[in-house]
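Weekly modeling sync, notes
Attendees: AB, CL, MP (scribe)

Item 1: holo prediction request
CL wants a bound-state model with (2Z)-2-iminopentanedioic acid before deciding which constructs to order. AB pointed out that an apo prediction alone won't tell us much about the pocket. Agreed to run with the ligand included and paste results into these notes for async review.

Input as submitted:
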Amino acid sequence: MTHRTIDCDDFLSDLAKRTPGEDAFHQSVAEIIPDLIPIVNENPEYREFALLERLTEPDRIVSFRVDWRDDDNVAHVNRGYRVQFNSAIGPYKGGLRFHPTVNQSVLKFLGFEQTFKNALTGLPMGGGKGGADFDPAGRSAAEIMRFCQSFMQELHRHIGPDIDIPAGDINVGAREIGWMFGEYRRITNQFAGVLTGKGLSFGGSEMRTEATGYGVVQLLCHMLAERDDSIDGKTIVVSGAGNVATFAAELAMCKGGRVVTLSDSRGFIHDAAGLTQDKIDWVRQHKSKPGASLEAYADTFDATWHAGKTPWDVACDIALPCATQNELDADGVKALIANGCAAIVEGANMPTTRAAQAAIREAGLLFAPGKAANAGGVAVSGLEISQNRQRRTQSRDDLADALQDIMQTIHDTCAEAGRTTSGIDYAKGANVAGFRKVADAMYAAGVA
Ligand code: NDP
Ligand code: 2IT
């Protein structure tokens, strides 16, 4: 049987027809597929197995009603999801996001990206993502706890240590994971490693909280070392003020960088003197209240607040977008370049728009995509799974070493797969290396 070669534009327009309105999902596929099509076209057996078509269709999507009562006893309804994207190399693994912008398209993009990211960690984890369109801003702890419990009332049917192991993401941290884990135990009477990012007293892993942000900076350091450069003395712009942003800022600072911004959904702070550990601790404490504004930072420290703005106009050597998808557009990239920025490393998932990526490529900036740079978090989640299965806990030092090794390997793997005559294309390297592993496994499993 002969199979026609795949044309990129045709593939993407067919996908858009099959999945109307799913812009975020289309964007994530359009970022990856051009790097994969040459591999598939060179491998007739992949075309015969419709590998790309199958890779871009989730294994399944569960969508469900989540009802809960607020503190005034008023009933509310939200929509919960779990997108189980691809389990070719292991059980589904990926975070849960609670945010009003959550919809099927956003979770499909996140689950699709997660599939490649998890493959890059070298650990046996498939890709998944979930969450709900619930907005915790302004909600009490009791309300968020009841929401988590109601969410788990349905989610528990679809997860398990050999099926799907969720974790946190935007607005889901150790506190929410604890509430969901507690509800899972109540429902099933099982103490199982069914969520990661748990508290240390009930099966959580040392280093998981720090892992994503630290991993971002570790990858950045490897990329700079490749060019005989280092982070020491560099000025760094960070967006976001949550888990990824604050731990990326912390390690960047420890390694001699001067971090001058953080941001949230209301604006950004510019602290020209640079963040310190005390300031970062203050941010963590302040932002632990859902909906708290970063504006208070400028009232507390010597810094300026820029309402409704992103930090991309601030002069820097390096930018780390660590908040959310599409937060950095082409104008932002141009402003960064005009002010001296030479490197962009993605802490968030898909923080750069397609036009921003084109501007980055055109300018030849040093760039790492989120699926490589933020993989440290899910990697330590993978180590939490192993610890839970063995009913043991590894020391913080061992896990810190393991994270460093994994980020070094991710760097080297992406560099090898992305080496071109003009340098290293880390985005291509991550796409190709992640795909090879998943594609081999999908091919080996056959097609019905
Ligand atoms: P957090 O909830 O801890 O922090 C999110 C931060 O981003 C907050 O400062 C929030 O501001 C800001 N933010 C959220 N949505 C928007 C928006 N629409 N516009 C502007 N700012 C926004 O989340 P994380 O730090 O965990 O996640 C940040 C990013 O990193 C996400 O893309 C996530 O998918 C990715 N990621 C997270 C991992 C993890 O281990 N946690 C692992 C790998 C990737 P505000 O407080 O005002 O809402
Ligand atoms: O995007 C991500 O990699 C995460 N939110 C972490 C997923 C996980 O399972 O630890």
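Recorded for review: The chain has a mean pLDDT of 97.
Action items: CL to compare against the apo run; MP to circulate these notes.
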